[in-house]
Amino acid sequence: MRFLFVGDSMTIGRAGDYSWRYRMWQHLASLGEPYEIVGPRTTLYDTEANAPVSNAYADPAFPADARRHLAGWGEGWLHMAPVIGETVAAERADILLVSLGLIDLGFYTDSDQTAANTREFVARAREAEPHIRMVLLPVIPNVRAASDAPFAAECDRFNVLLAKAVADLDTPTSPILLASRPPSYDIHQDTYDGTHPGPTGEHKLAGAFADAMHQAWGLGRAYRAAV
Fold this sequence. Notes:
The protein is α/β, with parallel strands linked by helices. The protein has a single domain (about 1-215), classed as Rossmann fold. Helix content is about 45%, strand content about 15%. It has helices spanning about 10, 20-30, 75-90, 100-110, 110-130, 145, 150-170, 200-215; strands at about 1-5, 35-40, 45, 50-55, 70, 95-100, 135, 175-180. The strands form two sheets. Strands 1, 2, 5, 6, 7 and 8 form a six-stranded parallel β-sheet that branches. It has a two-stranded antiparallel ribbon with strand order 3-4. Helix 3 (about 75-90) runs parallel beside helix 5. The longest helix is centred in the last third of the chain and has 21 residues, at about 150-170.
């Protein structure tokens, strides 16, 4: 299986982070089954340089080939829909693990347009690989939602539209899963700034993807955080 991580700042991570990608790599490596992580990018975001140029992962032993991804600080469904087809084709991805939407709703598009971009993303991925599988994570409202009621409402509405898109677009030949938001996820405990995951949040996000694939597809096992 060839896994491609797709996401925004929560997925690319910043210099000094482990990232939930690292936690997922640990999980996949523990299964003892063939897999590969693919993608055109490998770096973390450097906040001082204001660019994705850092290789300073918290664990320098994180293998170079496992660092690959398609994630960007400030990028959302709006940005990924136009490039996912060419990326899937070039990387020969089998499974997409996707965490997008918060940045779209916060800065670029409303819930309706974000949902339309999600459907375009799915269509372009399937054009490149008709048997592609996808796991989509709902938007986890961040600290802004606590004080911005319209933004919180858009996050909630998009998640409803995302669930509908998954129900409409799921097929036997190209299945789509909607992962569950980790029930214990707390933006005050599991993030370092109310948005971006810290170590506990990273484990919970990786677990959401791993558990969805295990429960629906029998892939791997339930997530257990590596010691």
